[in-house]
Amino acid sequence: MSMAALAPFAFICLWSGAFIAVRAGLPDVSPLFFLAIRFVIAGLLLAAIVSLWRPLRWRELRGKWAVTALAGVLINGGYLSAAYIAMTEITGATMALAGSLQPIMVAVLSGPMLGDKFRPAQWLGFGLGTAGVALVAGVNVLELNTGAGMAWALASVAFMVAGTLLFARYSKGVPAAHANALQLLSAAVFCSLLALVFEDVHIVWTAATIGTLAYLIFGVSLGGMGLYLFMLNSGTAGKVAANFYLTPGLTAVFGFVLLGETLPLTALAGFGMAMAGLWLIQSRTLRR
């Protein structure tokens, strides 16, 4: 199986596993500071590896350093910081529903920005994906009236959408590993500044903290985000973003298998609906 074919499956599994890692051992640490630590370690490690492995490929960032770094601040720093703040006011289920707006927003905006066009069956797929996430999440509609929490949740989605489109429009073709290293370090600076200004920084190092940090560094920041940038380099932005439809359902399955959590029939139905939506979306996309 080719890398292009394997990447979406690996990405979905790694991204979904992040939620399990956090549930299994939510670190006793201020969240923005935790993000900064994660991005510093991942960014420095990846920058060292690619500098030794393929140092000349840094040249391919020429003229794209600033825009690639900005995309990283939006995708990593802005998205996750806003999501952390949102979940102090709303549940993870509501956050998942807000996140399901990301693929359809990318698809809508990728038309005027990137020249992508989707067929009616694919738009049906985006609708099925969003509905599937709602079933998996089991959202309490009354909670959607939560002002500040929902505002931060929508802001996190907007950051991810903006970063995705920015990278796809101006940084496409940049080596994914090199771009990821730059973006992680840029996000590290961003989150460090936020932590210094807005947080009373504290951390307690436990086995759970270290395990969670290790998975988020290697599984998500290096693995998952690297695959996301690889897919953006080789595919259509809307179709790549649609992979996020499966993460809430797969997280629920992982929680059932690994943590003994309850897996309602509605969650399974929603997961199936999201898979059907993704199948429709991944069919051929028209271009102008």
How is this structure best described in words?
By secondary structure, the chain is an all-alpha fold. 75% of the residues lie in helices and 3% in strands. It has twelve helices and four strands, in the order αβααααβαααβααααβ. The strands form two sheets. Strands 1-3 form a two-stranded antiparallel sheet. A two-stranded antiparallel ribbon has the order 2-4. α3 (65-86) runs antiparallel to α7 (147-170). The radius of gyration is 18 Å and the shape is globular. The model has no long low-confidence stretch (mean pLDDT 86).
Mean pLDDT: 86
Beta-strand content estimate: under 5%
Order of SSEs: HEHHHHEHHHEHHHHE
Largest sheet report? 2 strands, antiparallel
Distance between the termini: 30 Å
Structural class: mainly alpha
What is the overall shape?
A: globular
The proportion of residues forming helix, as a percent range, comes to: over 70%
How do the strands of the widest beta sheet line up side by side?
Answer: 1-3
Count the E strands: 4
Tally of distinct domains = 1
Count the helices. How many?
12
| Rg | 18 Å
Poorly predicted ranges: none
What tags apply to this protein structure?
288 residues; mainly alpha; two-stranded antiparallel ribbon
Can you lay out the helices and strands and say which pair or pack?
Blueprint: H1 3-24, E1 28-29, H2 31-53, H3 65-86, H4 92-99, H5 101-114, E2 116-117, H6 120-137, H7 147-170, H8 176-198, E3 203-204, H9 207-234, H10 237-241, H11 247-259, H12 265-281, E4 286-287
Antiparallel strand pairs: 1-3, 2-4
Helix pairs in contact: 1-9, 1-11, 2-8, 2-9, 3-7, 3-8, 4-6, 4-7, 5-7, 6-12, 8-9, 11-12
